[in-house]
Amino acid sequence: MVPVVIYTTRFCPYCIQAKMLLDKKSVPYTEIAVDGNRELRHEMMAKSGRHTVPQIWVGETHVGGCDDLMRLEYNDQLDQLLAG
Fold it and tell me: I need a surface site. Which of 51, 57, 66, 72 has the fewest CB within 10 A?
């Protein structure tokens, strides 16, 4: 399985929803919490070009945010991306 990285904040409902989908699918992920950490938030923004959370990567592919992750799942493309 391809590694998954998700930048989050603690109380973001979209972050929680994205993690719930990954947990439901038993997908392990590395969570990088950017709460109050300006350096990590800047790192996320530099990598993604976006300032909102969550920002999700599957391997080297930047998926985007929660809506993007859900769209992949809805279109039966997420499992293929996770498999590499």
Answer: 51
